[in-house]
Fold these 4 entries.
Entry 1:
Amino acid sequence: MIRIRLTQPKAFLFYPLHKTVQPAFVVDTTEVFAEKLELLRLHHSQFGKTAEEFGVLAQGLGDYLHGLETRDRHYGAQVGVRFGEALVSDKPWRLSGLEDLLR
């Protein structure tokens, strides 16, 4: 008999898509940002059109990829890099010390 032990995650990290929030962490994505945009452009039906081309009123900057770049620059600037991806925690993390972040 095989026994599987299920454990519940201690916390969840979320990537905020549609709003700017105060992140728990910002990951430096500067080295991979161009590749990220290239991969998103492969999904032209989802990310290649401007808001006007979708028939909706643009809110703010218009097309999604430009907004994504702006958001990633904003989060990157918060931690002193060119591009960053924000991660938001569902609750505070319990740490015994800063070394817990490295494990």
Note: Residues 13-90 form one domain.
Entry 2:
Amino acid sequence: MKSFTIILAIGIIILISVFLVYKMINEKAASDEVEKSLEKAYMEKSLQGKKIAIIIAFRDFKDEEYFIPKNILESAGALIYTISSSLGTALGSSGGEAEIDRLLKDLNVSDYDAVLFIGGSGASKYIDDKDSHRVIEQAVDNNKVLGAICIAPAILAKAGVLKGKKAAVWSSLMDKSAVKILKEEGALYLQDSVVIDGKIITASGPDYSKEFSEKVIEVLKNE
């Protein structure tokens, strides 16, 4: 019995070690891909002078979904303004900090070329938020590029701009509430990483932050 316990413990240690190595390799590969995207964006400077409003929750925005697009878009020459429901320092769910430039309620969409909504658990407060809906409606009315990642496409759906539009959104085996919102609001839900329909770009989660950023660049370049 004692020897079996020892063998079991060794087996568990080996499995944990393999998992950690696999995780490190994947994270390194993802980091390398982001670096390549940053270098490409910097070399091309294709968004020189473009103004982009990135809207995040004041608490518990998804770090990767904010920092990766911000860095890539800035490298492409865009001017980034971080927007939230409060002024001060916003906190991401992984501990990242972001200084807020403007209040969401004061956002004038006509001043920007694109408006992006970032996900994370904190973004759920924007799903039925009238200021968010006003910004989204104005972005569509003014023919601006409009993006959302993770659960944030549900905000767009509730604002009524995804009816008849193809869109992606975050979901898991245990939680498909955001998918339900999209379908209830008439969106054509796709189980894809990133979806473009006209000037609306939606992405299904943090793993696709780089691809989301590149699609925003692509759509803005084609204006």
Note: The mean pLDDT is 89.
Entry 3:
Amino acid sequence: MVTLHVYYGLKSKPEKRIPELEKLAKWLAGWAKTLKRYGKAGHGHNLLALGDFNIDRVGDDLYDAFTSTGLSTPSELDDVPRTIFYDPEDSRKDMHYDQIAWFEGSRGIPRLTLEYKSGGFVNFTDSVMRDLTNTSLSWRMSDHFPLWVEFKV
């Protein structure tokens, strides 16, 4: 499992994050290709990448850079909110910063041997520090909803 946080300080020019996302995708692909030395072929190829990739939305240039080497994200996570500031009426706040991804077996990279079952997010705003505004909660807890995935074992 690899957790990452892509640089965010380029808000006015998010395309400047593309080189970092491309380099991460290439590094993950290269590393995943070497996993065969850690066990029999088809076993132990369970490399997961997760974290805050600061991707604006599925299908934009940032997402394409992230998935350029074959990383795949579960479609169930495409429509879940990522931030406590999510507003279904304002698509500008519907960012896909956080991701969970793995390789599906293309470009010479072994397929994840775990079988994906489901995924979602945890809305903690109704359960944690309920007396705080979202802004205050973002500083004390997080401004991101945790994502989760479940695999069959």
Note: The chain has a mean pLDDT of 83.
Entry 4:
Amino acid sequence: MTKRRFLLGGVAALGAITAARLLSGGGGSIAAGPATGAVDFEVTKSAEEWRRILTAEQYHVLRDHGTERAWTSPLNDERRPGTYTCAGCGVPLFASETKFDSGTGWPSFWSPIEGAIGTSEDRSLFLLRTEVHCARCGGHQGHVFDDGPQPTGLRYCINGVALDFRPAESA
């Protein structure tokens, strides 16, 4: 075997592993419990219970750590005052005042509602990222990055399918 074939084989194997992780959503399932290091969440359900209350795409994102395609969420264009809640358990996660257009194709926020979000290390795709999950049910929401606007400098890049929007009530 030549050195060139060995290197090409290694590159092909690495590509196959990366593709498999991308297609699988890149993380472990949290159907009944977290893959986030937390011991318990206030809301826990079996995989079958989650499948009954979530759409297939919501289950893929919230429970299997998947990612929706960029630019597919109607929440990208949502501009009304209100609250973004977890699609799994309904807990308020983000206030509309913290939403901004990051140009990434996913709803982005510079700060969550206090105590609503948990984080964990995500080492999928051969990267180290900070995963964001609902503190109440453990549902995967997205990731947080340090390239956001002030006052926090953070960008919570969230899957729109993992959220519901509740408009503020008119006075």
Note: The domain at 3-167 is CATH 2.170.150.20 (Metal Binding Protein, Guanine Nucleotide Exchange Factor; Chain A).
